[in-house]
Design a protein that fits this description.
There is one protein chain. With 128 residues, the protein is mostly helical. Helix content is 46%, strand content 0%. The chain is built from 3 helices and no strands. The longest helix is centred in the C-terminal third of the chain and has 25 residues. It starts with 26 loop residues before the first helix and ends with a helix. The mean pLDDT is 84.
């Protein structure tokens, strides 16, 4: 459902949402709740369209001892940088392991897709 106007300008903004993990443990619950929430915005005319991501693997953050509004959020650029740094560490560990086994480290011998999937799986298991 959307109310996008063809050939018209639309303002695109980034929104961060924090939900208690205990109340929304399943990605379907998160997605369903967000769809209901944002569809109300479309019906009211506030929104023309929406998209949300990572309901299947949300970033779990622990609130500080004295939380303040917004204290759980980082900018998208900072979050991407942190993720890339973590992935770089993963790749270095992977290459170190291959080096110890005297295996080649090049694109002919390493499948990048499975390496990325292994990283995502490792990340998912370390957060949940």
């Amino acid at each position: 459902m959307h109310t996008l106007t063809p050939n018209a300008h639309h303002a695109v903004v980034t929104v961060h949402l924090a939900m208690p993990a205990e109340k929304n443990p399943h990605s379907d619950d998160i997605a369903d709740g967000l769809n209901q929430f944002f569809q109300a915005g479309i019906l009211s005319g506030l929104l023309a369209d929406y998209a949300f991501y990572h309901t299947d693997m949300p970033n779990l953050v622990v609130a500080p001892p004295a939380p303040e509004a917004g204290s759980l959020f980082t900018s998208p650029a900072m979050a991407e940088q942190a993720l890339l740094l973590d992935f770089a560490r993963h790749v270095i560990d992977f290459c170190r392991y291959r080096q110890q086994k005297e295996r080649p480290i090049d694109l002919d011998h390493i499948n990048v897709g499975p390496l990325v999937m292994d990283y995502m799986h490792t990340r998912e298991n370390s957060e949940g």
